[in-house]
From TrEMBL:
This is Lysine N-acyltransferase MbtK. The keyword Transcription regulation does not apply. Acyltransferase required for the direct transfer of medium- to long-chain fatty acyl moieties from a carrier protein (MbtL) on to the epsilon-amino group of lysine residue in the mycobactin core. Pathway: Siderophore biosynthesis; mycobactin biosynthesis. Transmembrane segments: none annotated. Residues 11-58 form the Acyltransferase MbtK/IucB-like conserved domain. It comes from Streptomyces corchorusii. GO terms for molecular function: N-acyltransferase activity.
């Protein structure tokens, strides 16, 4: 990264106001692992309305200088996504993030995003460990996850994919980002 530090803020996704933007992000070929390639605008609205109404799943937009720059989702893995696929512990939180495709990639941007997402999750003192389950073929995200302290545990079969179950404790994250 250059000498400038990227600063992000977060706000909840507004399913109706943000659907058009999110639709452009999740249907782009770069977002293939998001598995919404064929989604219609109404599908994206419905998905994020369901998330907004779900006490165990939250969607936030990451803003850079007030402009939506990425999507973050946090969920309770004991109730969503990973329920029954691993032994959830108190303090576990599941996470997804998506940076939109761009014609002008910025070196270090995605790593700054995942670092900000992790810092945001760990702001909650109840969060002890972040859990991710990316597609085993998504080598780019595996590298990013490792850079912020995730340690793969094992591959698991989810209904929609073969996933690499990985964990990151607060201590692992702090060690990785201050190294």
């Amino acid at each position: 990264m250059t000498g400038t530090t990227m600063t992000f803020t977060f706000r909840p996704v507004d399913p109706l106001t943000d659907a058009e933007l999110l639709h452009s992000w999740v249907t782009h070929p770069k977002a293939a692992f998001w598995m919404m390639q064929d989604a219609r605008l109404e599908d994206v609205e419905r998905t994020y309305m369901e998330i907004a109404a779900d006490e165990h799943h939250h969607a936030l937009l990451g803003l850079r200088d007030g402009t939506p720059s990425f999507l973050m989702e946090a969920y309770d893995p004991a109730h969503r996504e990973l329920a029954g696929l691993y032994e959830a512990r108190p303090g576990d939180v599941g996470m997804h993030f998506l940076t939109p495709a761009t014609d002008t990639p910025e070196h270090g941007f995605t790593r700054a995003v995942i670092t900000a997402v992790m810092a945001r999750l760990f702001e909650d003192p109840a969060v002890r460990r972040v859990v991710v389950e990316p597609d085993v073929r998504n080598t780019a995200v595996h590298a990013l996850n490792a850079a912020v302290g995730f340690v793969p545990e094992r591959e698991i079969d989810k209904p929609e994919k073969r996933a690499l179950l990985s964990f990151c404790t607060r201590e692992q994250f702090e060690k990785a980002v201050t190294a």
